[in-house]
Design a protein that fits this description.
This protein is an alpha+beta fold. 35% of the residues lie in helices and 15% in strands.
C-alpha cells in the first residue's frame, strides 16, 4: 500500500510540473512581439557597460517612468542616437553622461585595454556613469574600457543592498549606476535597503530554473523597462522581444540597430550570461499643463458660486 501511495504522489507531482510547463509554453507561443519605442541607440563611448547604462538612463530621461519625470538624468536633452561620433569629440549630451572629458583625462590616458595609466590623485569630482561604475579605473582592477559586474552564482538576484558596505561596493558597475542616479537627484537615497536594481545570471547560462528567464525579460519589457544585457565580455541594451524563437532586440553599441539575438544564444561570438535591471524611482511629478489648471479653476469657481 505504501508503494502505491508513493507512486501516486510521484505521478501527481510530475503531472503538475508538466501542466505548468505546458501553460508557460502556451503563454509564450501566443504572446505577440513587444518592442519599446524611441529607445536611445548609442555608439560605444569609453566602455560598453557605461554606454549600455547610458542608453537605459537616456530612455528614462526621455520617457519617464510610471507617470514620473526623470529628465535630469542626462545633462541637457538626451538624444535618440549618437551615431555617428568621433572618439575624443563630445558631440552629444549623452556622451557627457556616459564618460566625460574629465573621466577620460584621469582614467583613459593609455587608450583601450591599457592598465596602470590612471593619473595621480586627486581626481576630478565624479560626474558620469563611467566614473561611478569604476570603468577603466586601476583601483577597481579594470583595464581601460572594462567594467566589473558581480553576480550571485546560485542564480538569485544580487541587489544594491547586497553590495552596499562590502569590499565590492566601489568596484561594482551596478552600484555605480545606483550612485549616478543618486547624483542626478533620483533614487531611494538608502543603499542599505535598495532593492530597485539588481544583477542576475540568466537561466540558460547557469541551468538553474529560478535564474533570470525569457519570461522575466518579457515582464521587464512589458512594464516599460529596458534591460542591460551582459554577454561574456560585452554589455548591450535589450528593449524588445519576439516570443517566436525566443528573440530579444538589442542595441549593441557597435552599429545602429535594430539587432537581435536568441535568448541563451551568442552575439558576436559571446554567450549570453546575465542582466542588470533598473526599476528607477524618485522621479518628479509631471506638471499639469497651464490650460488644464485654468480649466480646473474655472470649474471650481462655478461650483463655489452655485453653492453661495
Amino acid at each position: 500500500m505504501m508503494k502505491n501511495k508513493k507512486k501516486k504522489r510521484s505521478f501527481k507531482f510530475a503531472s503538475i510540473i508538466f501542466i505548468f510547463i505546458f501553460f508557460v509554453f502556451i503563454s509564450i507561443s501566443y504572446a505577440q512581439p513587444v518592442i519599446l519605442s524611441d529607445v536611445p541607440d548609442y555608439k560605444w563611448w569609453y566602455g560598453c557597460s557605461p554606454t549600455a547604462a547610458g542608453m537605459l538612463i537616456g530612455y528614462y530621461d526621455i520617457h519617464g517612468y510610471q507617470g514620473l519625470r526623470y529628465d535630469n538624468l542626462v545633462p541637457g536633452e538626451a538624444e535618440l542616437s549618437t551615431f555617428p561620433s568621433t572618439e575624443g569629440e563630445w558631440e552629444y549630451n549623452a556622451q557627457y553622461a556616459i564618460a566625460s572629458p574629465e573621466h577620460v583625462n584621469d582614467f583613459y590616458r593609455g587608450g583601450y585595454g591599457a592598465e596602470g595609466d590612471d593619473a595621480p590623485p586627486p581626481y576630478h569630482e565624479f560626474n558620469c556613469l563611467a566614473d561611478f561604475m569604476g570603468t577603466s579605473q586601476d583601483s577597481a582592477g579594470n583595464p581601460n574600457g572594462a567594467t566589473t559586474f558581480y553576480f550571485n552564482i546560485y542564480g538569485f538576484p544580487l541587489y544594491v543592498a547586497d553590495i552596499y558596505g562590502t569590499e565590492y561596493q566601489d568596484k561594482s558597475g551596478l552600484y555605480g549606476i545606483w550612485e549616478y542616479i543618486e547624483y542626478r537627484g533620483y533614487g531611494t537615497h538608502d543603499p542599505a535597503n535598495d532593492y530597485t536594481m539588481f544583477n542576475q545570471l540568466v537561466d540558460t547560462y547557469v541551468k538553474i530554473p529560478w535564474a533570470f528567464s525569457f519570461l522575466d525579460f518579457m515582464e521587464e519589457i512589458n512594464s516599460g523597462r529596458p534591460v542591460i544585457i551582459h554577454l561574456e565580455g560585452h554589455s548591450m541594451l535589450g528593449y524588445g522581444y519576439d516570443p517566436d524563437g525566443f528573440i530579444i532586440y538589442v542595441h549593441d553599441t557597435w552599429s545602429p540597430g535594430p539587432h537581435t539575438m536568441r535568448w541563451g544564444g551568442t552575439y558576436g561570438g559571446m554567450k549570453l550570461m546575465g542582466v542588470t535591471c533598473v526599476h528607477i524611482t524618485g522621479g518628479s511629478p509631471v506638471p499639469i499643463p497651464h490650460s488644464i489648471i485654468l480649466l480646473g479653476s474655472g470649474i471650481l469657481l462655478i461650483f463655489v458660486r452655485r453653492k453661495t
